[in-house]
Design brief:
The protein is α+β, with helices and mostly antiparallel strands. It contains 11 helices and 9 strands. The chain has 3 domains: 12-126, Butyryl-Coa Dehydrogenase, subunit A, domain 1 (Orthogonal Bundle); 131-228, Butyryl-CoA Dehydrogenase, subunit A, domain 2; 237-382, Butyryl-CoA Dehydrogenase, subunit A, domain 3 (Up-down Bundle). The protein has helices at residues 18-34, 39-45, 53-58, 76-89, 91-111, 114-126, 237-271, 283-311, 317-342, 353-365, 370-382; strands at residues 131-134, 150-154, 157-168, 175-182, 185-192, 198-202, 214-224, 273-274, 277-278. A hairpin with a 2-residue loop joins strand 4 and strand 5 (185-192). Helix 1 packs parallel to helix 4 (76-89), helix 4 (76-89) packs antiparallel against helix 5 (91-111) and helix 7 packs antiparallel against helix 10.
């Protein structure tokens, strides 16, 4: 029998097929080569590494779980594993890929017209055009049905007014998928960001996701042609289906941050000496390492299981909530525990632990807060809605 690997205690890798392992290995190599040594500086400088976007496109990571239009057409599980490896570098990098593929490309791919698909998807898959997703508003986060952004008809055109907040890629984007109320219900609009009346303002002074480009979007009598609307969906089903796609990537991605924190603590415990020997030899340190290893491996089993269900077309959105809620909580616990093993060194950007811990605070909130996912599952269990 082969001795278990401390970095893959349950042998999760053996559950993956050859293509999935190859994709995971390729992305892991890319992150270690291009991201790991620079992520701390990018975090400190609050700078997104835009120069990597073309490489992400060349690797087929943008919209990778979609088919056609230059997209790679991989399995959902492979997409999840890529998200995990990207977030092992930094949550901001995974957020870029999630927003590009699951929140900007996916609605155009699923609900857009042929013209919209042909115009945007190939360029977005190559990384030549960047997208963002406008749903959250300054005073409307968990209750998007009460949004204030409104689009009204003006002859054959649409006039869009309103604002969106906490928009990843907002200052980088060439196109925004914006959700707005209309007289006929909530509709999605494909908005080129060079349209007069569109403004993106960078949100500064963040203590989390500093490597991510985050913006407030404003629409001031922004005029769009009639064919800017996504024809394939009306109502909140549209944006909520996109969020479910993004949450799936998160339930894998958060474990990448957790794995980096766990491995950092494991390495540190083997070399840091106190009282004449490595701290990994002390019982309390071993207790922490064992707890982290157990949580990480349990989260990985859950992620792979949900990935298999999604690939089989049998993953309801409530179970995506289950995975996102559980695995982000797990990742935060691991990051915080790892920080205690590194002690004072754990707060330094020379190590990745507190950077990941800070990022995960945002990951816990976006794409549905901890409370909202709890209520989603509560409704599933009881049959009763507790939202209002």
């Amino acid at each position: 029998m082969t001795k278990p690997d401390p970095r893959d205690l349950l042998g999760i890798r053996d559950l993956l097929n050859e293509e999935e392992r190859e994709i995971a290995d390729t992305v892991r190599t890319f992150v270690r080569k291009e991201v790991a040594d620079h992520a701390g500086q990018w975090f400190e400088d609050a700078t997104f590494p835009k120069h990597l976007v073309g490489q992400l496109g060349e690797m087929g990571l943008l919209g990778m779980h979609l088919t056609g239009y230059g997209c790679a057409g991989t399995s959902a599980t492979a997409y999840g594993l890529a998200c995990l490896e990207l977030e092992a570098g930094d949550s901001g990098l995974r957020s870029f890929v999630s927003v590009q593929g699951s929140l900007a490309m996916f609605p155009i791919w699923k609900y857009g017209s042929d013209e919209q698909k042909d115009r945007w998807l190939p360029a977005m898959a190559r990384g030549e055009a960047i997208g963002c997703f406008g749903l959250t508003e300054p005073d409307r986060g968990s209750d998007p049905g009460d949004m204030r952004t409104f689009a009204k008809r003006d002859g054959g055109d649409w006039i869009l007014n309103g604002s969106k907040m906490w928009i990843t890629n907002g200052t980088l984007a060439d196109v925004a998928v914006v959700w707005a109320r209309t007289d006929d219900g909530v509709r999605g609009f494909v908005v080129p960001t060079d349209t007069p009346g569109f403004t993106a303002r960078e949100i500064k002074h963040k203590l989390s996701l500093r490597m991510s480009a985050t913006a407030e979007l404003s629409f001031d009598d922004l005029r769009l042609p009639g064919d800017a609307v996504l024809p394939g969906v009306t109502g909140l089903k549209g944006p909520l289906s996109c969020l479910s796609e993004a949450r799936f990537g998160i339930l894998f991605g958060a474990l990448g941050a957790a794995r980096t924190c766990y491995e950092s603590a494991l390495d540190y415990a083997s070399t840091r000496e106190q009282f004449g020997r490595p701290i990994g030899g002390f019982q309390l340190t071993q207790q922490k390492l064992v707890g982290m290893a157990m949580e990480l491996n349990q989260g990985m089993l859950l992620a792979v299981h949900l990935g298999r269900r999604k690939d089989a077309g049998e993953l309801p959105p409530e179970l995506v909530s289950f995975g996102k809620l559980n695995n982000v909580r797990t990742a935060i616990d691991i990051a915080r525990t790892a920080r205690t093993i590194l002690a004072a060194n754990g707060i330094s950007l020379e190590y990745p632990v507190l950077r990941h811990a800070n990022n995960l605070e945002s990951v816990l909130t976006y794409e549905g807060t901890e409370e909202i996912h709890t209520l989603v599952l509560g409704q599933l269990l009881t049959g009763q809605s507790a939202y209002r």
